[in-house]
Amino acid sequence: MDHLSLLPMPQSLTFLPGAYVASSARRILLQGTAPGALLFAARRLQSALRAHAGVEWELTATPEGPPGEIGATLRVIADSASHPQGYVLTIKDGGIIIEASAPAGIFYGVCTLIQIVEQTGRTLPCLHISDYPDFAARGVMIDISRDKVPTMETLFMLVDMLAGWKINQVQLYTEHTFAYRNHPDVWARASPMTGEEILTLDAYCKERHIDLVPNQNSFGHMHRWLIHPRYAALAETHDAFQAPWGVMQGPFSLAPDDPGSLELVRSLYDELLPHFSSRLFNVGCDETVDLGQGRSKDICAQRGVGRVYLDFLLKLYDAVKQHGRTMMFWGDIVNNHPELIGELPRDVIALEWGYEADHPFDRNCARYAEAGIPFYVCPGTSSWQSIAGRTDNALGNLHNAAEHGLKHGAIGYLITDWGDMGHWQALPISFPGFAVGAAFAWAYAANRTINVPAAVSRHAFTDPTGAMGQVAYDLGNVYRAVGYEPPNSSVLFWVLQAPDTDARNLPPLDFDRALDAIDAAIQPIATERMTRADAPLILQEFDNTVRLLRHACRLGQLLVQPDGPGALPRRRLLNNDMREIIREYERLWLARNRLGGLSDSVARLERVRARYTSQEQHA
Question: Rounded mean pLDDT of 169-194?
Fold first, then answer.
């Protein structure tokens, strides 16, 4: 049985001679701590044995009874593992034993055991596993502000999947999508998370040893607030301003020296934080790109942009401390002013993020380590602004973060999944990044050479054939076939976002090659055998993703030769195709997400159709 596929692969696995056959009329013994602390993990194991081994094992807190009745023992013993979250799993002819120094370790041992049972049924290989995480905090951050707010059913599904891969932190990136009782105008059309839903999700996560960390951007990315008259006066600027990626239209960031800005943020913290049991809090504060280009121009000229930024960050730090939390913040702005890193309080957590494969994690992590500032590394799934993902870039980015995070002593590894410019990617497009990131965060050396398509297929898509993992992997590399790779995005995404682009002014683009790559990537899907409850939905999501990719290729061909033969009939065909894509896109959106945000997302696709219609009218 040396072909077992485990995600994550453990730090150490040794196969032993023989096998253990799980028979009926056995019990699962909970020992060494209050049974309630192990009950949820034991019930997960009980359910897996029922479903995949066909046996019903009773739970017990006593070994008393006839000899040989105990089939599995879940035992907490102080110092039994080398790490507080570590565990030792032994399967031998006499039964199964999982030992750990804390309930979390038992849970993770059970997660590994369940993956074994799913593949072997009732005949389990004898083995010994000694396992523990590389990163104490292993998180996933999901964007619920641009523009998808998942349903509770979707969030429960994600939490269950991630917990099975030993993820122990989840954040929901929030700008305006929490139902603040004192600020209803901001979230009125957003279908936000309510306080009751956060309380429910927090309890659901805690049972699975996941820390649900509050996340509220508090400086930049505040345009959803500042467009409303009640908050407009707090904006840095309402005019156009220069960002690193081009000219943007305000408002965007809070004016840091306006007392009302801090007053607003404090009021948000007062409402939001009581719903979370976590002692951490991510205040955001990334990409304050308009700072110094509006109301704070003079003070930035006097004190420096970095100093003005840090002063406001420290005010937020004080507000967070008053709530008894540890402040987390995105580190991009202080990275631009490295001389200020040493002035950060030593009890903050800096989030070192970057989403290209060659992001300078090595250099930036070294700065935090040298200053004694605790930090996470934060790579991404590369799903956003791509339609189908960017597989090669995601893997390079995830590798880079793990390697240099470990090198410099990062205390956490946070996998980010964004929804910029319409959140066009379907949720399963992010599964490979979630799965590989979880594996690297747990045991990088043991997982760095895993067979990604096979592991993703089995553990994310529950497809033992390997087909769905291969489809997701290859479809995620279509972005490379075009011949040009813009940063943090794909050409095919931008073709749809900016249909008026004159492609003749761009580098040579090979849309024919991209179409061939799409056809090759999707071929194995006919052989998939997913057992997930949402398998039909996943197939529909991939089908519409493929339609979007092909549409982008054909539009790209038209942009390269706008006046070529048959241009008008081609536009009409594309117009009809986009109409059908949008109809299906709306249906699929509502299968996993709330209504809020859908109209904004679809409006970006409708702009493509409007261009076709306009061209027909002027032909």
Answer: 98
Separation CA 542–CA 426 (nearest Å):
8
Q: Token pair of 614, please? A: 């306009």
Residue 455 lies in a domain: no
Amino acid at 471: V
Domain count for the chain, please give it. Answer: 3
Based on the domain organization, do 481 and 442 belong to the same domain? no
* Range(s) of the domain holding residue 229: 137-450
Q: How confident is the model at residue 100 (pLDDT cuts 50, 70, 90)?
A: very high
Average pLDDT of the chain is 96
pTM of the model: 0.97
- For the residues 328-352, what does the mean pLDDT come to? 97
* Closest CA relative to residue 167, chosen from 280, 85, 103: 85
Predicted confidence (pLDDT) at residue 504 exceeds the cutoff of 90: no
Q: What angle do CA 249, 487, 392 make, to 5 degrees?
A: 145
Answer yes or no: do 287 and 436 share one domain. yes
Element (H, E) at 128: strand 123-131
- Whether the per-residue pLDDT at 564 is higher than 90: the answer is no
Write the CATH number for 108: 3.30.379.10
* Phi, psi (rounded to 5 degrees) for 501: -60, 140
Distance, C-alpha 60 to centroid of its chain: 37
Looking at 404, 422, 450, the residue that finishes a domain is 450
Instruction: Let me know whether 121 and 151 are in one domain.
Output: no
Asked if residue 3 belongs to a domain, the reply is no
Please, are residues 134 and 412 in contact by the beta-carbon 8 Å criterion? no
Judgement on whether residues 96 and 67 belong to the same structural domain of the protein: yes
- 614: three-class secondary structure by DSSP: helix
- pLDDT at position 1: 46
According to the model, what pLDDT value does residue 619 have? 55
Euclidean distance between CA atoms 494 and 498, whole angstroms: 6
Helix-, strand-, coil-residue percentages of the chain, each rounded to 5: 50, 15, 35
Mean pLDDT on 593-619: 88
* CATH code (residue 299): 3.20.20.80
List, in sequence order, every residue forming a beta bridge with 12; answer none if it has no partner.
130
